[in-house]
């Protein structure tokens, strides 16, 4: 089957479309500038987010609980807003202009945040800038789908596209590493004014780098109109024709005429009919009342491609649901892993290592696993499986689920060992007045490293999967499902902790997760998470076996 792409000949998603082979000339500078601008876009975000709770406490004089709540609310908002940017990109603006617009919003946000360090209305200005950043920062699904658009559909181009997803996440990790360490150090050592001013300058540089590549970007997917409207139209049309019998022969269903493979949806190829969710096929049944009406109302008669768009989204949802449980376990790095690390000996010679700093080993693990996967594992898997990408995206995601289950088991095993040392030797009082178990905090490194491996397989696999399986005119929105899964996973994790605390802290028992974890059973919580991860993996294997990959009708 030869895949084709509808590409705009106008400027960044103009009105003139053509069928084209996706193997036309593509400048390598386009993808390079996308990746580099991603680093400079990510550094200020992580530099702001990592140390944000301290700004609330020190500069805005918020209490610990209030500061933590403010940061959680902001990060939750920032995690959900990518869908807004993705919707605009797929529906109205196109990816290029959406990225440019939202990068500009980010510049304004960081500028207001920096200016708020001088303003009299510091709190109000800071909050305004902070939520402008949250709005503008929601670009990851749009940027990654725009970058993937630069590649063609033959085997070599697909392999390069798969590699792009790997390196995109690698460059995000670079931004995370620099932002969460060097930029946080600047804020701490040299003040918020300089620290936040640097964030604004870095975001300006990100805009400049992206815009500099304008002439090198060869593929601009034109916006196809509101995908939400098209989905609702299919449901309404199917319900209206609920008493109509859908034919067994899919060739009798309504589709736009022509042999060029282009659908009625701008910028989208025609999709082949599938047998799943057959009720929706009723929306594409042309009745006597539909014939002779031109143009046909999409609220009464939809094309097969429009129906298949909805089917594609429905098939993605079980994979999306499994991703929520993955995210709930993954977020333990910033919660229960830290609680565990706070009790361990943090000293490395004369240097004291904060428990939160160990998340750097997750980032370093990602930066090691990406080139290892891309340059060693994929070529080996390609020879063994014959698949051009080494693994199918679904298989890759599943491997990440296995790694995360192992990470929870490692955390549980470490907690058992920690409690054993606590029973034998008790605690000692450090120079900072805190009590520590005489066991090095660096025993946590393996679980962070394994989580990093899980992210390289699952998160990058999700990017590739959602992009490849989304309808052409919904790629940004569907790619954004990964970000939404992580936002929901954080909420699930919080809810799970609340349920566990209430269920176990009864009858005078401190429960599994008391304020002093030395009195609790954090190991039981990690075993619970491991069981949830294993159950999630089992459900995912069923979903992966059930899933039908998208096919075009050309």
Descriptive report:
It is built from 18 helices and seven strands. It has 554 residues and is mainly alpha-helical. Strands 3-7-6 form a three-stranded mixed sheet, with helices on one face. Strands 1-2 form a two-stranded antiparallel ribbon. Strands 4-5 form a two-stranded antiparallel ribbon. β6 (428-429) and β7 (435-440) form a beta hairpin. α5 (95-116) packs antiparallel against α9 and α8 packs across α15.
The main β sheet shows up as: 3 strands, mixed
Output the strand order for the largest sheet: 3-7-6
Estimate the global geometry from the Cα principal axes. Answer: globular
Low-confidence stretches: 1-24
Helix segment count?
18
How far do the termini sit from each other? 7 Å
User: Care to count the β-strands?
Assistant: 7
In short:
This protein has helices at 28-50, 52-58, 64-80, 82-93, 95-116, 122-136, 140-148, 155-190, 192-212, 227-240, 304-330, 336-341, 359-385, 393-425, 445-469, 475-479, 481-504, 522-546, and strands at residues 5-8, 17-20, 344-345, 347-348, 351-352, 428-429, 435-440. By secondary structure, the protein is mostly helical.
Write the layout of secondary structure elements.
Layout: E1 5-8, E2 17-20, H1 28-50, H2 52-58, H3 64-80, H4 82-93, H5 95-116, H6 122-136, H7 140-148, H8 155-190, H9 192-212, H10 227-240, H11 304-330, H12 336-341, E3 344-345, E4 347-348, E5 351-352, H13 359-385, H14 393-425, E6 428-429, E7 435-440, H15 445-469, H16 475-479, H17 481-504, H18 522-546
Parallel strand pairs: 3-7
Antiparallel strand pairs: 1-2, 4-5, 6-7
